[in-house]
Target: Purine nucleoside phosphorylase
Amino acid sequence: MSELIPAKEYLGKLKEATEFVKAKVANEPRLSSPRVMIICGSGLGGIADILHSPQPKIEIPYADIPGFRTSTVPGHSGKLIFGLMGSNKVPVMCMVGRLHFYEGYSFQDTTFPVRLAKKLDIETVVVTNAAGGVNAQFKPGDLMVINDHINMPGLAGHHVLRGENLEEFGPRFQPLSDAYDYALRKLFFTKARNELKITRNIYEGTYFFAAGPTFETRAEVRMIRMLGGDSVGMSTVPEVIVARHCGMKVLALSLITNACVGDSPPSAFDENPVPMDSGMASHAEVLETADEASKDVQKIIEATVNAL
Model:
């Protein structure tokens, strides 16, 4: 289990990062007080393309920000982008490329940007991800609004709030029965169906957080399904927990990029077995499916944020 940075040192790094970012956006008053943070999942970095501003959007590479880690995953460009979204010009900070536990980073590292968002007085966090469809009803390209989660690493002792509690952000024992804001979920569905007339399947369900980086085995898929998971992925939950610990409202969305294989593997005694790689997940498939659905995701998120 990775060593934790002492709270005093962590808060010092956070203060330095906050001051650095504030200085970068200080010359554009409309961008200096963002109200919404959007975390772009695999293949969904195009969400930042719908930001607009009277000046060029402000882009800050992670590598330039004190205390920030860099993203190492294909499809994650690794920068904060500040701009305005929608006709109401809502000031937004986009995190284009998230940080993952499986990259070797601690949860303190992966959720550092969320704490930064709180320091910037951001009120709402929109979290997107690419996920595998565990629910047999889900097909690649479907969307799932998250209404609950199962934090498997957290249940096993790798919890994002482990260690000294940061009292200035939230309580020692954070309730999570209201983690995914009802009003935001309702708004998302209303905008998608009534205003934009999106025909893509949109469900609600439970997200299962697995540490990764391997995709799940067949037996693990059956276990996740039995435990109540509808989608599975390697992110989101640590960010959501920290956002709630900071008192921010959360809307979270899974883009289903592949159907998880849960059938038992072919037996060595079978004469004509189904190929072992039938339905096998790949990161390339994740990015391809995300690209196809990204335009709908962008439209719905823009309409939702515009109403905040």
Q: What stands out?
A: Helices lie at 7-25, 107-110, 112-119, 152-155, 182-195, 218-227, 237-245, 283-306. The first helix runs from residue 7 to 25. DSSP finds eight helices and nine strands in the chain. The domain at 7-306 is CATH 3.40.50.1580 (Rossmann fold).
